[in-house]
Design goal:
The protein has 332 residues and is α+β, with helices and mostly antiparallel strands. It has 14 helices and 11 strands.
């Protein structure tokens, strides 16, 4: 038994001596020579200069660079942003990209739907006509569901800024088929009290007689007013100023409880005969006030409303469009 054991031990010793441990092979590192562009593409950006190189390396367009946020705080880049991401005019306004000029201001009003009155209250007043509009905005009276001006209209331009002619000559006034205004008796002192008298052509002009934010009441809207005040039989008294400072006695039924503050501004006549059927081009101041409706009755006549000193009634008539009446506006 000793011989086999010896042989086994000898075999183990020989096998152990024959096993040689190998040395692992080390691959030398590869030197990757990244170009400027490749290094940038891997995000190795440190400076603004690198950002500019990125644009060049990736062939990024101006719009792509804008979308990536690579914007300098300048008006030019902001304008590029608007162009690239197709922001509308209104969106650009809301982002504050406004130049201090009239055109951008008007865009702002249009975009954020600021009314004529609100724009005036924000101080966007450029002319005497704007000051008048501000007065109208600040002196509104609510009657039922309607908001009325408390004073008669006294503007000299249409809403778009075009001038409304002042026509004093009687014959010239008679021959008009376009808008015009005058003072009662052609006296500016009457305008201070009663406002201007307009023919219906001015009322109906597509350029807009009423200031922005207002409109001339239709016949239906006049009816709404009379109905709210208890019907035409009593509405007139509730619409007239009290006392006999402007109204002649008796100024029947006048309470002005509506706040409408109607005044007897009279009218300018139309004459289609020679000599005229009246001795004066103007009549009725102190006795009655007439206000145009926006509703036409026929090719020659339009509807109007009338208050008179002797009664508390609100009257409705059709009158020749050539005549000159007061105008009162409703808030849109």
């Amino acid at each position: 038994m000793q011989k086999p054991i010896f042989i086994l031990i000898l075999f183990v010793i020989i096998y152990s001596c024959s096993k040689v441990e190998s040395t692992p092979t080390v691959t030398p590192p590869v030197v990757i020579k990244l170009s400027s562009c490749d290094s940038i593409k891997q995000g190795l950006l440190k400076t603004t200069s690198d950002s500019v190189r990125l644009l060049s390396c990736l062939t990024i367009t101006n719009c792509d660079s804008v979308r990536l946020g690579i914007l300098k705080p300048s008006t030019q880049d902001t304008l590029r942003l608007l162009s690239c991401i197709k922001i509308s005019g209104c969106d650009s306004v809301r982002l504050g990209v406004l130049k201090p000029n009239k055109a951008d201001t008007l865009r702002l009003l249009s975009c954020i739907k600021i009314s004529g009155c609100d724009s005036l209250r924000l101080g966007l007043i450029k002319s005497a006509n704007d000051s008048l509009r501000l007065n109208y905005c600040n002196s509104l009276i609510t009657i039922g569901t309607q908001r009325w001006m408390k004073v008669n209209l006294d503007v000299v331009t249409y809403r778009n800024g075009d001038t409304i002619p002042q026509v004093n000559d009687r014959l010239a006034w008679e021959n008009l088929t376009t808008g015009a205004w005058c003072y009662y008796n052609n006296d500016p002192a009457n305008g201070v009290i009663y406002g201007k008298l307009y023919n219906w052509y001015a009322v109906n002009d597509p350029r807009g007689l009423a200031p922005q934010g207002f409109h001339i009441p239709t016949e239906a809207e006049w009816t709404t007013l009379g109905t709210f005040l208890g019907g035409d039989e009593v509405a007139g008294g509730k619409m007239k100023t009290t006392g006999i400072t402007t109204w002649t006695t008796p100024n029947a039924g006048a309470t002005n409880e509506s706040g409408f503050s109607g005044l007897p501004g009279g009218m300018r006549n139309d004459y289609n005969t020679t000599p005229p059927s009246y001795t004066d081009s103007f009549n009725g101041v102190g006795v009655y006030g007439l206000w145009w409706s926006a509703s036409a009755g026929s090719s020659t006549n339009a509807n109007c409303r009338q208050l008179i000193s002797a009664l508390g009634r609100l009257f409705i008539y059709e009158n020749n469009k050539k005549r000159g009446f007061s105008v009162r506006c409703l808030r849109d």
